[in-house]
Amino acid sequence: MLFLNERNMRKALFAAATVVVTALVASLLFADAGEGVVVLPNRMSDAPSMPEPDPFSVLPAKGKLLVATRNLIDPRFQETVILLLDYNAKGAAGLIINRPTQVHLIEVLPAVPGLKKQAVVYYGGPVEGYRMLMLIQSDEKPIESVSVFSNVYVSSSKNTLEHLAGSGKKGQQFRIYAGYAGWASGQLDREVSHGDWLVVLADAQTVFKKKPAEIWRDLLRRGPLIQVWSRDVHYSPLTLAQPPSSCD
Hints:
Elements: H1 6-28, E1 64-68, E2 81-88, E3 91-96, E4 100-104, H2 105-108, E5 120-123, E6 127-137, E7 146-149, E8 152-155, H3 158-167, E9 173-184, H4 187-193, E10 197-201, H5 204-209, H6 212-221, E11 227-228, E12 236-237
Parallel strand pairs: 5-9
Antiparallel strand pairs: 1-2, 1-10, 2-3, 3-9, 4-5, 6-8, 6-9, 7-8, 11-12
């Protein structure tokens, strides 16, 4: 019998997820959201604008990044970075931003003109893998979208995708994610308090510019500067990578 180590197990799970994305994304990518989903971007267009996340708070919030620590043993989320799209008393939801698949957008959406040949679908999380969510960076609010932070928006509208793909507007970019990560009420708070996640402020550079393979390690290297919510002390630094001492 063949046994997989942790790294190979993650690769196997991710490969399986890629197969699921390939099979489902073409026909169901733009399906309407079902009941009980925390994030419903296509139904939130009339919601009041939320304030920008507090950069000095160490608590989870919409527009912040969750960085998996080495304490997290769930292979679905090991070495992931998740952008929170929604966080409230009912639960939380976000997108894994550092797991691109090998599925190209033009393969699954050949009818949408203007898509770049190299653009791929990203694996957004294990919940509802057939659902499309799109992160957009734009100086102007795109149609049928909801603000996440600063000039970054989320949408699940095919009209928005077609408009963006065809506009070619400078400084405007987007990525498409299949599925998302979700937490029940209080679940994410418990995981953060147990040390499973670092909570840091998101920025567009990390989401859209950095190489996905480098995002997680880069954020971990900033460990001494990152504050997390501790079970015992709500404002305590968690050091994951101490800088070399100059006093040796």
